[in-house]
Structure formats: structure tokens, C-alpha cells
Amino acid sequence: MTGGGRTLRAALAYARMGWPVFPCRPGEKVPATGHGFLDASTDPDRIASWWTAAPERNVAIATGAPGPDVLDVDVRPDGSGFAAFNRLRREGMIGHPRVIVRTPGGGLHAYYAGTTQRSGHLATCHVDFRGRGGYVLAPPSMVNGRPYVVISHQNSDHVFDWDKARQLLDPQARPPSMRSHRAGRACDPGQLAAWVAAQPVGNRNAGLFWAASRVIEAGYADALDGLARAAQAAGLTGAEARRTIRSAQRRASEGDTPAGRDREAAT
Question: Where along the chain do the CATH 3.30.2250 domains lie?
Fold first, then answer.
């Protein structure tokens, strides 16, 4: 069976497990559909049509229920996430992942039962959490000629507690202020990511800036990665999305956000 045939077979197998999948560009993490993870499906006919049209596409799984939650351990030139992963293991927090995948960069993905937890990012620890509003490439996808490879698999419904892990690895993180907590009740990062991913040409940067400002003000800065991925699904480049989010962060640090101006106009 060709590489493209293996990818289609894997995509259909993931779908039979109840995990929504969608295609990414061959050799890349960039979605090949108009709305990225929002287009993810378990429909075998739709999946077959995606890979019949372009057999070499990578396969991505939309994370968060009904898909899996995934702990992403990165290895980069500036550091490795394995120290954080091993600390979580010593504290008994890794549990029994359903699947462990070796990633092309030498890191790993640990798959857990899907929940409604939001995606998160701990840059200094080199670990990410892919939950609601996120996605991961899955075997046998390849990046830079290197494949994602399953290294262990077991029957497990273990749930990974991202908030507990974050508190252990980054105890200095300040809880949101009461004002941010109130704002957060009306701020759903998952819904904002879906909205950003659906923005048309001409409104993608402005939409991302507004959404990023909302999550920053609500105390959900760990959701910015999910917004960046959603913006890329809408058609922005990674550099464009990062630049817009940095602009929102600068404006927030100056106390000037679109959400804040909305409230002032209403008073």
C-alpha cells in the first residue's frame, strides 16, 4: 500500500474510534481545508474524498471531546519538555495514556480521553496541551521527511488534568483577577477560535486581534495558541498570526483593548 493509502487507512481508523479527522498539506501542519479543525469529520465518505483527491496529505485529529486530549512534549534547540514530563510522571500525573507517539522533532504526544478542557501552553517548560479548539498531526503523517510513530498503545480512559499540571509546573502563574473572572464568564475561547477560523479575507487580522484581546482580558492567555492556529486555518500565515497576537498583547499591557472600549461605550 502506498504512503497515501496508509494515511487514508489511518484516517478511517481514527474516525471509527470516534475521533474527528481532517487533512493537512503534505509534509506540513497547515490545514488543507477551508476551516481547519472545524471541518474535522468522522464520515467515511467525506474522509475518503479528501485523501482520494490528494493521497499524500497528512492526517490531523481535532482534539478535545469527542477527540482525544493530547499532552505535547517538545524538543527544541532552546530546551526540552522531557524534564517537565518526567516531573509530572514522578508526581503520578501522567497516568496511563491511551497512545504515546514519537513526533518528528524527537518529542512525544501522549493521548488521553477527550474532555472540554481548553488548550494550553507553557513556553518555559516546552509542553503544550491540545484540548478543545486544537489539533495534532497523527501517524503516519510526516514533517521534514520524518514520521509520527506510535511507540505504545493500551486500553485506557485516563483523563489528564491540565490545570493541575500547570499549577505544578508553573506555580508562579497568577490567578485571574475578579474583573477578569467576570469577563471570562462571557468569553469562551473555543467559540472564539471557531469564529476566527471562519473569518473571510479582509477581516482575518482584525478578527484575530479582537478575539486575542478578549481572551487576554478574560485571563485566558493560554488560549492564544489556539487562536493562532484558528487564524492559520482561516488563511493567515503563522508569522501574520503571531504578529497580530503580539500587537494585542502590547495593547493589553497598555490597558487599551477592544473589549475594554466596548464596555466603556456601554456605560
Answer: 3-169
Beta bridge partners of 137: 60
Q: Which amino acid is at 8?
A: L
What pTM was computed for the model?
Answer: 0.69
- Collapse the DSSP code of 72 into the 3-class scheme (helix H, G, I; strand E, B; otherwise coil) and give the result: strand
Could you give the maximum distance between any two Cα atoms of the chain, in Å? 65
Per-residue confidence in pLDDT tens, the chain, 267 aa: 445 588 999 999 999 999 999 999 999 988 888 777 888 999 999 999 999 999 999 999 999 999 999 999 999 888 899 999 999 999 999 999 999 999 999 999 999 999 999 888 888 899 999 988 788 999 999 999 999 999 999 999 999 999 999 999 987 654 444 344 434 445 677 778 878 887 777 778 888 988 888 888 777 777 888 888 888 888 889 888 999 998 888 877 665 544 444 433 333
Classified by CATH at the fold level, domain 3-169 comes out as: Prim-pol fold (3.30.2250)
